[in-house]
């Protein structure tokens, strides 16, 4: 097989679909013994949905998710600071942003790839270049394989990045985040709305995933978490029904993670080895673009493959993608800091500023985010 894709997350499976479309042979190696979705829900923004339309699976995703028609920013008591309707972009691209459970997204991707192309329980231990210019991958189960190309889609703590590109330390946002999914009847006002609510050193958000399911997250500064690690103790400013929603979520299904990203770095490709997605440009979740930027990586590679060989496509891909991907990392990091302000004066100033944000400016920012590269 020509290509080793290391990692069967969203980036790896989306890339596998693109390589399959281009008629390029590949194997996806996944470290876990079974593919279990990490996290709970995910928003697939318009830029990523355009890619999935290009790859032929947008309709399947629409059938499994819920349309997001408005993005709403509030305080923790759900008083509106700002709201952005997405109708303009729906009409422009003939696609909607959707919210979907990660397990449903993975199922669609797996079906499109074909499970025969995926090898499980293959945790990468070592990767070395061969004399002929390919790569030998050695796994912790003591098996070894050779491939001409290696593409690291193995996320924030990428073994491919560490083994071939150098040690780029993770950047700690000093925030922790709980995430959960449950069956819950949201008030009608939030039927097709993605909500994010900002407080002082904490924030939360929620969105419907299906008619029955709601996805929520609650994020606090690490110093607040160290003072009080019980989620319930941080919910006091939220409306009672939001508190009930979070408290009704089965505790064993709630995920708790620290937030990190990768400070932007150059060099995602060398000698038939390439990094995409979080392995190349992991971002904090503040813009909802982490997975979407990985999916955009695949789009650029897929379009380049219409004109060039795989080697030429991978060589050209970083120069096309790095400006936007790095901008997302920087903007998301900065927004995360503003969203977590604790000083009452600055919080009041922040909230007033977002209330007064002109519609044309928000539209311009969204346009920049949703527009795909012309390749």
Structure description:
The protein has 375 residues and is an alpha/beta fold. 38% of the residues lie in helices and 27% in strands. It has 13 helices and 19 strands. The strands form four sheets. A seven-stranded mixed beta sheet has the order 6-5-14-15-16-13-17, sandwiched between helices. The two termini are 27 Å apart.
The total domain count is 1
CATH fold descriptor: FAD/NAD(P)-binding domain
**SSE-based structural type:** alpha/beta
Number of beta-strand segments: 19
Spatial extent as radius of gyration: 21 Å
Which percent range fits the helix content? 25-40%
| Portion in beta strands | 25-35%
Q: Determine and state the CATH class.
A: Alpha Beta
Question: Termini separation (Å)?
Answer: 27 Å
DSSP summary: helix tally: 13
Q: What is the annotated CATH architecture?
A: 3-Layer(bba) Sandwich
Largest sheet: 7 strands, mixed
- Order of strands across the main sheet: 6-5-14-15-16-13-17
CATH superfamily: FAD/NAD(P)-binding domain
Mean pLDDT score:
95
Summarize the structure.
By secondary structure, the chain is of the alpha/beta class. The chain has a single domain, classed as 3-Layer(bba) Sandwich (FAD/NAD(P)-binding domain), CATH 3.50.50.60. 38% of the residues lie in helices and 27% in strands.
């Amino acid at each position: 097989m020509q290509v080793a894709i290391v990692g069967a997350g969203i980036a790896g499976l989306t890339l596998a679909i693109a390589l399959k479309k281009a008629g390029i042979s590949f194997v996806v190696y996944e470290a876990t013994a079974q593919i279990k979705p990490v996290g709970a829900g995910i928003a697939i923004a318009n830029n990523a949905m355009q890619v999935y339309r290009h790859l032929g699976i947008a309709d399947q995703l629409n059938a499994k998710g819920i349309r997001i028609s408005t993005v709403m920013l509030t305080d923790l008591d759900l008083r509106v600071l700002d709201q952005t309707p997405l109708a303009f972009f729906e009409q422009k691209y003939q696609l909607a942003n959707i919210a979907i459970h990660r397990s449903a997204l993975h199922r669609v991707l797996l079906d499109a790839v074909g499970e025969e192309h995926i090898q499980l329980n293959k945790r990468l231990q070592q990767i070395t270049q061969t004399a002929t210019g390919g790569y030998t991958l050695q796994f912790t189960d003591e098996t070894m394989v050779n491939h001409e190309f290696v593409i690291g889609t193995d996320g924030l703590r990428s073994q491919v990045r560490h083994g071939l590109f150098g040690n780029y330390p993770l950047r700690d946002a000093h925030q922790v985040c709980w995430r959960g999914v449950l069956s819950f009847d949201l008030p009608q006002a939030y039927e097709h709305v993605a909500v994010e609510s900002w407080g002082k050193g904490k924030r939360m958000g929620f969105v419907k995933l299906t008619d029955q399911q709601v996805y929520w997250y609650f994020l606090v500064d690490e110093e607040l978490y160290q003072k009080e690690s019980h989620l319930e103790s941080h919910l006091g400013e939220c409306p009672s029904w939001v508190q009930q929603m979070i408290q009704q979520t089965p505790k064993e299904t709630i995920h708790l993670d620290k937030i990190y990203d990768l400070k932007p770095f150059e060099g995602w490709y060398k000698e038939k080895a390439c990094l995409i997605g979080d392995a190349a440009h992991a971002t904090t979740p503040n813009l909802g673009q982490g997975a979407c930027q990985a999916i955009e990586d695949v789009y650029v590679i897929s379009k380049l493959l219409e004109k060039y060989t795989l080697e030429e496509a991978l060589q050209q891909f970083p120069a096309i993608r790095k400006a936007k991907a790095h901008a997302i990392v920087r903007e998301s990091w900065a927004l995360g800091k503003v969203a977590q302000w604790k000083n009452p004066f600055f919080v009041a100033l922040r909230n007033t500023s977002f209330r007064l944000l002109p519609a044309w400016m928000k539209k311009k920012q969204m346009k920049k985010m949703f527009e795909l590269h012309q390749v």
